[in-house]
Specification:
Elements: H1 2-9, H2 11-14, H3 18-54, H4 59-115, H5 118-123, H6 126-146, H7 148-168, H8 170-177, H9 180-217, H10 219-225, H11 228-280, H12 287-329, E1 351-358, E2 367-374, E3 379-383, H13 390-396, E4 405-410, E5 413-414, H14 420-425, E6 427-430, E7 439-440, H15 441-446, H16 454-463, H17 467-471, E8 480-481, H18 490-503, E9 508-512, H19 520-534, E10 538-542, H20 546-551, E11 554-559, E12 562-567, H21 569-575, H22 578-584
Parallel strand pairs: 3-10, 3-11, 6-9, 9-10
Antiparallel strand pairs: 1-2, 1-4, 4-5, 7-8, 11-12
Helix pairs in contact: 1-12, 3-4, 3-7, 3-12, 4-6, 6-9, 6-12, 7-8, 7-12, 9-11, 9-12, 11-12, 16-18, 18-19
Adenosine-5'-triphosphate is lined by residues 122, 360-361, 366, 384, 386-392.
C-alpha cells in the first residue's frame, strides 16, 4: 500500500545493522515471553502451594512445602531477572539502532542536498530543509529506534498472554476477544488522524525554522529597517500553528489511553461475573487459581494493547516524517554529468555562448538567442540595466544551470560533456558577497584549493593584497573568522575572495564586482589585486565600476536577455545607443560619491 511505503522504505537503513536488529528483536521477544511466564508462574505455582501449606497436616509436611515455596520464589526471581536483563540489552540495542539510523539518515540527506542543483534551492526554503534534516529525522529516531523493541515486545507479550488465557478458559477469552475489532478500528481511525496532524505539524515546524533562518540571515536589514516587531509577529503566528498542531496530536494521544483502559475495565468486570459462572460450571483450568491467573494475564495483555495503540500513533508520526524525508531523497539533480564525461588537456579558456536560450522557470525567457564569443585571455565587461540577465550569463559558464537550447562551450567543447568537478576547477569565481565559513582565515582562503600548502596560501594572499591585514590579525592566518570569529570589513572580504580564486590558478575568472563603495586606499588595493587576478586569464566581469568598464577589452551591453551592443567604451559612446544613455544617466556604474547605505 502506498500509504505505508515511506516508512517501509526506511528498511534500507536497517540492512547494514541487521545483526544488531535481529539480536534486539530476539531479546525483546524473549523478555516478553519471560515476563508473561513470571505472571503465569505467580498464580499457577504459588496458589496451590499456599493452599497445601495452609492445609498441611504435620510440621514435617509444612517444612517440605515451605522449602518448595523457597525454590519456587527463586525460580520466579530468575524469570523476572532474566526478563529484565533481556529487556535492558534489547533497549540499549534499540537505542543504538535508532541513533545509527538517525546518523545515516542525516548523512544521506546532507549529501543528497549537496548533490542537488542550484535550481532545487531556488524552489525550496532553507529553513524547511534544515527542519527536515533535524526534526523529521529525530521523529524517526524516537518512533522507530527507541520504540522498536517495544514494537516487538508488546504484540508478542499480548500473544503469549492471550495464549495462556485461551488455555485457561477459551470461552472467556473468545467472549473478551469480541471487543478487539472495536479497539482495533478505533486505534486505526485515531492513527489516521494522527498522521494527518503530524504532517501538518512537521510542515509548520519547517515554516517556523524558515522564519528563524531568514530572520537571522537578514538580521542587518531587520535592524536597519526596524522590522523586529513585524518579524516577531510572524514568528508568533507560525509558532502558534505548531502549538495548535501539537496540542491536537496530544489530544489524540490522551484520548487513546483512557479509551483502551475503559475497555479493559469493562472486560475485567465481565470476567469477574462470567468467570464466576464458568468456575461454578467447572470449566476453568486450574480452578480458582486459574481464574486469578486469567485476570492477571488479562491485565498484562491490556497494558500491552494500550502500548500497541500508542505505538501505532508513533508509527503514524514516523510515517509522516519519512514521507518528508523521502521527498528529498527521491530528488534527482538537474545537472547531471554523462557517464562518458571528459576532461580537457591544456585548457586555453576560450568561451562561446552559441544560440543560448535560457529560463529559470517556464514562465519567462531570461536569455534569448544569446551569442557571444570570448577569445582566450580577453576580459569582457557585461553591463546593462537591472534584471537584464548579466548574472545569468555568469551563472551559465560554471554550469550552475543548464541552457534550454544552444550551448555554452569552453575551447569549443560543450560544457555538458565535461566532468563537473573538472569544469569547476577551471574557474575562479569572485562573487559580490563573499561567503566566509566558520574557520581560520587561512582555511577560508584554502577553500579554493583544499590541498594548498601554507606557502601557497600566503603567496595568494600577498598577490590579493590581503597579507598585510591578515598578518595584523591577533593570530595571523590562524585567526578564526566568520560567524564565530573576527569580523572582516567588506574590502577585506573581497580580498579573501580574490586570494581564494587566485589559489586555484584558474583559466577563467568570473567576477561580480561589489557595488559598495570603499575608501580610496582599499579601493586601490582591490584594484591591484584584481589586476593580478585577471592577468593572462579569460574573464567575464559583471562590472559596476567605471574604471573596470573602461579598462575591459570589450563591453557587452545586455538588455532583456539579448546582446544589444558591444565594443569598446569609445565605440559604444560613439554609437549613441543604450550604453551611452546608461553612461550619461550614470546607471551603468556606481558613483564614487555613492555611500553604501
Ligand atoms: P542585476 O543587475 O539587478 O543584478 P542582472 O542583469 O544580473 O540584474 P539576472 O540576475 O541575471 O539580472 O536576472 C535576470 C532575470 O532573471 C530577472 O528578471 C530575474 O528576476 C530572473 N531571475 C534571476 N535569478 C532567478 C532565479 N534563481 N529564479 C528565477 N528567476 C530568476
Amino acid at each position: 500500500m502506498a500509504a505505508k511505503s515511506a516508512l517501509w522504505r526506511l528498511r534500507e537503513f536497517a540492512r547494514p545493522i541487521r545483526l544488531a536488529l535481529a539480536t534486539a528483536l530476539a531479546l525483546s521477544g524473549l523478555a516478553a515471553y519471560l515476563e508473561i511466564q513470571a505472571v503465569w508462574k505467580t498464580s499457577g505455582v504459588f496458589e496451590p502451594l499456599f493452599k497445601s501449606i495452609s492445609s498441611a497436616a504435620t510440621e514435617a509436611e509444612k517444612q517440605t512445602q515451605l522449602g518448595e515455596l523457597h525454590s519456587a520464589a527463586v525460580v520466579l526471581l530468575l524469570w523476572i531477572v532474566s526478563a529484565a536483563v533481556c529487556e535492558a540489552i534489547a533497549s540499549y540495542l534499540g537505542q543504538w539502532i535508532g541513533q545509527k539510523i538517525l546518523f545515516d539518515l542525516r548523512t544521506r540527506l546532507f549529501d543528497k542536498l549537496q548533490s542537488l542543483s542550484l535550481s532545487y534551492f531556488d524552489r525550496h526554503r532553507a529553513g524547511d530543509l534544515i527542519s527536515r534534516i533535524n526534526n523529521d529525522t529525530a521523529i524517526i529516531q524516537t518512533s522507530v529506534g527507541e520504540q522498536l523493541t517495544r514494537m516487538v515486545v508488546a504484540p508478542l507479550a499480548t500473544v503469549f498472554a492471550v495464549g495462556r488465557m485461551f488455555w485457561t478458559s477459551w470461552r472467556l477469552t473468545i467472549a473478551i476477544g469480541l471487543a478487539i475489532p472495536i479497539i482495533a478500528s478505533m486505534t486505526l481511525f485515531i492513527g489516521r488522524c494522527m498522521r494527518r496532524y503530524s504532517l501538518r505539524v512537521q510542515e509548520k515546524l519547517g515554516d517556523l525554522t524558515s522564519v528563524t533562518e531568514e530572520n537571522l540571515h537578514a538580521i542587518r536589514v531587520v535592524k536597519v529597517f526596524g522590522l523586529e516587531e513585524q518579524l516577531s509577529g510572524r514568528y508568533a503566528d507560525e509558532n502558534q500553528g505548531v502549538f495548535r498542531g501539537q496540542m491536537k496530536a496530544a489530544l489524540l494521544r490522551a484520548l487513546t489511553t483512557p479509551f483502551v483502559t475503559i475497555f479493559i475495565g469493562l472486560a475485567l468486570a465481565f470476567t469477574l461475573v462470567f468467570g464466576g459462572y464458568e468456575l461454578a460450571a467447572g470449566r476453568v483450568a486450574n480452578g480458582a487459581g486459574g481464574l486469578m491467573a486469567f485476570i492477571l494475564l488479562m491485565q498484562a495483555a491490556g497494558a500491552q494493547v494500550n502500548r500497541i495503540s500508542r505505538l501505532h500513533l508513533s508509527i503514524q508520526q514516523a510515517e509522516a516524517a519519512a514521507r518528508r524525508i523521502y521527498e528529498i531523497l527521491a530528488e534527482m539533480p538537474d545537472i547531471a554529468e554523462p557517464d562518458d564525461a571528459i576532461e580537457l588537456d591544456d585548457v586555453r579558456g576560450d568561451i562561446t555562448f552559441d544560440g543560448v536560450q535560457f529560463s529559470y522557470n517556464a514562465e519567462r525567457r531570461v536569455l534569448e538567442d544569446f551569442d557571444l564569443h570570448i577569445p582566450t585571455g580577453q576580459k569582457v565587461a557585461i553591463v546593462g540595466p537591472s534584471g537584464a540577465g548579466k548574472t545569468t550569463v555568469a551563472n551559465l559558464v560554471p554550469r550552475l544551470y543548464d541552457v534550454d537550447e544552444g550551448a555554452v562551450r569552453i575551447d569549443g567543447v560543450d560544457i555538458r560533456r565535461l566532468r563537473n568537478r573538472f569544469l569547476k576547477s577551471l574557474m575562479g569565481i569572485v562573487p559580490q558577497e563573499t561567503a566566509l565559513f566558520s574557520a581560520t582565515i587561512g582555511q577560508n582562503i584554502a577553500f579554493g584549493k583544499p590541498d594548498a600548502t601554507a606557502e601557497e596560501i600566503v603567496t595568494a594572499a600577498k598577490a590579493a593584497h590581503a597579507h598585510e591585514f591578515i598578518s595584523a590579525l591577533p593570530m595571523g592566518y590562524d585567526t578564526e573568522i566568520g560567524e564565530r570569529g573576527v569580523m572582516l570589513s567588506g574590502g577585506q572580504r573581497q580580498r579573501v575572495a580574490i586570494a581564494r580564486a587566485l589559489l586555484r590558478a584558474p583559466r577563467i575568472i568570473i567576477l561580480d564586482e561589489a557595488t559598495s563603495s570603499l575608501d580610496s586606499e582599499t579601493e586601490a588595493a582591490i584594484h591591484s589585486a584584481l589586476q593580478t587576478l585577471l592577468e593572462d586569464r579569460t574573464a567575464i566581469i559583471i562590472a559596476h565600476r567605471l574604471s573596470t568598464i573602461i579598462n575591459a577589452d570589450r563591453i557587452v551591453v545586455v538588455d532583456k536577455g539579448r546582446i544589444v551592443e558591444q565594443g569598446t567604451h569609445q565605440e559604444l559612446i560613439a554609437a549613441n545607443g543604450l550604453y551611452r544613455r546608461l553612461y550619461e544617466t550614470k546607471e551603468l556604474f556606481e558613483q564614487d560619491t555613492n555611500s553604501a547605505q
